[in-house]
Amino acid sequence: MNPVIQATNFSLELPQAGYERPVLDRVTLGVKRGTTLGIVGESGSGKSLLSKALLGDVPDGAVVSGQLSVAGTDVIGGSSRELRDLRQRHASMVFQDPKASVNPVHRIGDFLTEHVVKSGVMRRAQAHRRALELLTSLQLHDPSGVMHRYPSELSGGMLQRVVIAAALMNEPELIICDEATTALDVTTQAEIVQILRRLTRDSSVTLVFVTHDLELAGDLCDELCVLYAGSVLELGPTQEVLDAPKHPYTSALLRSTPRLSDVKRVLPSIPGVVLPLTENPTGCVFADRCPLVMDECRMAPIAMRGDDQWDWRCLTTASTEGVQHVAH
Amino acid sequence: MSLIEVTGLTKQFSSNADPAVDDVAFSIPHGGSLGLIGESGSGKTTVARMILGVEVPTSGIVRSDGVEYEPWSRRAMNRRERAKRTQIVFQDPYLSLNPKLTIGESVESVLRLHGAKRGAAERQCDDLMAAVGLGKREKEALPRALSGGQRQRAAIARALAVQPRLLILDEAVAALDVSVQAQILNLLNELRAEQGLAYLFITHNLAVVRYVTDEAVVLQRGRVVESGPTETLLSNPHHEYTKQLIASVPGTARRG
């Protein structure tokens, strides 16, 4: 079966004064139908740009190259009609702040049904039924009452469920969640993650979950894509990557994540800051902060290595072992 | 004797609503660190605002070294005294730094306001910058030229300039990337060990609270539902809500 997302050497450059490196650099990844991919990165990694670019939404003046196919649509070469069709019928996005996705003066019911009715995907009565079904399945209390309420009358967690329902209205093949639980309380976040997990289990929908939280992605995703300064540094099966990361960045990120179970008082941090856009090193983008850096790392661009299950962009890791032993 | 002790702290914003803060009590020893844990609407920031003196409680008592005082009262002490007792660092350092002043100017202006002569202010500023791990380049930069972590370091330096005895950290690491968050948490631990500061560390993140606090208080809808030594509270929680919070920390279920 064709993958829902297939990116091959997808790059995005912003030709702007002072920007020296591509904001996305030779991104290669594939997402199979019905699976969940976690795109994990810190600020400046390019994760939001990548998630928007998947639906053909790139900043003005951006120069893209490589191949990107999403739900059968050629995102780079596609016409605006094809891209509109992709967004209306095949894919949806959920963002961090649900308040920014809804119209404050429209009732929830209108918000949910409007776009599918207008774009001709469904008739009004059918859309209304589907909206009710979805609100019920997302465990919102009193779904028909919620349809008549305004966004300001709902809590953040309820509103994010409404936004997820809106994303599901057109029965998309692909849902992209960009930090969709970040603004929520921890207990609400856990509920939303539970809902997303059930959704991917019970249907064939493909989920791309973009987050800064490696552990959260670990709770939900089948595969992880670790992004740093626009480059995919590691891409592989979630549990394996978290248990024995191949890239020193993944390893360092995991070690600097606070955990309930730890007993130590000192948290290993990653020295330095994320590579600014004004710098474009010849070699590895993580070299300046890497505890294992060697001279070769800085000499030439680092190619992905690994197999078709698990890839990473690092010279230091042999294919048989992880980098957990990295001393701080 | 506790540096700060609150008893029966209550704040009711409207007579027909439940109190935002309801009969809250805790104490922080000199050089101690207390975590105030809760979700949005739990009243944790309102508690902080009352201790800071920018919110007047409906009832309740605040004591410092056993002596009752009213941080919110204009008569009890002047602004400089109040500033020396308690400082606060927020989630977003942009809000606490003047965008038109360099970091150095921001910190020095606080020192000058509190009576330091120009030369002394400069020296103290350099010491503070060194203490929070900022160099000459950052000292001469405007806030917008710095990274999020550097700005938070600058906000901490500015808060420390008046040598407060209590530093309130209101979700101070919540907006930072994990690698930078770890740097700031380590910095907070170093500063406490070196300077004998006390912290009131407000957070919704239980995993973070372990690293910087000795004791913790869990707030739910304005009430304390559980309190105790942080380690014990996290490893052996009694209240259902605490258990729920712990189970909600990403990775907890998977890692067992």
Q: Which percent range describes the beta-strand content of chain A? A: 15-25%
| Low-pLDDT sequence parts of chain A | none
Radius of gyration of chain A from the CA trace?
21 Å
- Can you give the helix content of chain A as a percent range? 25-40%
Q: Using DSSP, what is the number of strands of chain A? A: 12
The greatest interface between two protein chains, and residues involved on each side, is: A-B, 35 and 37 residues
Mean pLDDT of chain B: 92
What is the H/E order of chain A? EEEHEEHEHHHHHEHEHEEHHEE
Strand order of the largest sheet of chain A: 6-7-8-3-9-10-12-11
Distance between the termini of chain A: 44 Å
Principal-axes shape call of chain B: globular
The backbone outline of chain A, from C-alpha atoms, is: globular
The SSE string of chain B, one letter per element, is EEEHEEHEHHHHEHEHEEHHH
The tally of beta strands of chain B, per DSSP, is 10
Judged by helices, strands and strand pairing, the structural class of chain B is alpha/beta
Biggest sheet features of chain B? 6 strands, mixed
Please give the share of residues in helix of chain B.
Answer: 25-40%
Q: How many H/I helices of chain B?
A: 11
| N-to-C span of chain B | 40 Å
